[in-house]
Amino acid sequence: MVLKLFFCAISPPCRAVKLALNALHLNVQYEDVDILTRKYLQTQLPKINPQHTVPTLVDGDAIIWDSHAINIYLVQKYAPDYSLYPADPYQRAIINQRLHFDSGLMYPCIYNSVVSILFKQMRNLNQHQLIAVKQIYAFAEKFLTQNEWIAGDKLTVADFSCMSSLSTLDYIFPVSSKTTPKLMRYLERSQDLPYYELANQEGLNQLGKLMQEKVLKASKNITMNIGN
Ligand SMILES: N[C@@H](CCC(=O)N[C@@H](CS)C(=O)NCC(=O)O)C(=O)O
User: Fold this and answer.
1) To pair with 158 at 20 to 30 A between CA atoms, which of 164, 169, 218, 224?
2) How many domains would you assign to the chain?
3) Whose CA is nearest to atom 1 of ligand 1?
4) Residues 141 and 55 in one domain
5) CATH number of the domain within which 198 lies
6) 112 pocket-lining for ligand 1 (C-beta < 6 Å)
7) Closest among 154, 152, 156, 175 to 225, alpha carbons compared
8) d(Cα 124, Cα 129) in Å, to the nearest integer?
9) Within a domain: residue 64?
10) Per-residue pLDDT for the chain (228 aa), expressed as one digit of tens each?
């Protein structure tokens, strides 16, 4: 049975799932969804997922949405012994906490910032958005104090969510090696994963291009570094 993923490359949660699929070497059929137009509401997606969000995974009769739920499912089903989501309750709790950090704090911040740039022609993040991004970077720096990866000394599913979100935020408001050096190294370490370019960077570049176009439209003189 071939997995099917309703997917949009510019979406950070979609890229988090693509990272997991590549790490696990799973074959998947990508069903591209253009979330920038409302046309996808006329497709099969809202029929199988009432929230009509991407990513949505179809695995036979199983239909799963939310990137965090999908990635846990993929590891538990297709690589149960893999350290990407270890069985130890405490390790799992830390991973889950980081996934909720992504879902509850990072994703809303990205959504808010990207919508401002793409649809409200904002050239600078507002004060509130800037404080939110800086706080996220400071938290991430603390998570990385004693570990190379976001939830410990090994790569886990939490990294797929966090690296896709943090790299997106980094595009909007660049991470500083002065204030958050560990986070900076974390982003570089992520780029060394053999599947990173295909699974994350390509979609991030597409989103970056879209944002650049909008920002340039709003002002001829500005270069990307929206936060400064
Ligand atoms: N928490 C969800 C967020 C999913 C989400 O909101 N995806 C956006 C794209 S980034 C989407 O599908 N938007 C279209 C819609 O809500 O109809 C996840 O991690 O999968």
Assistant:
1) 224
2) 2
3) 66
4) no
5) 1.20.1050.10
6) no
7) 175
8) 9
9) yes
10) 799 999 999 999 999 999 999 999 999 999 999 999 989 999 999 999 999 999 999 999 999 999 999 999 999 999 988 999 999 999 999 999 999 999 999 999 999 999 999 988 788 889 999 999 999 999 999 999 999 999 999 999 999 999 999 999 999 999 999 999 999 999 999 999 999 999 999 999 999 999 998 876 765 444 445 544
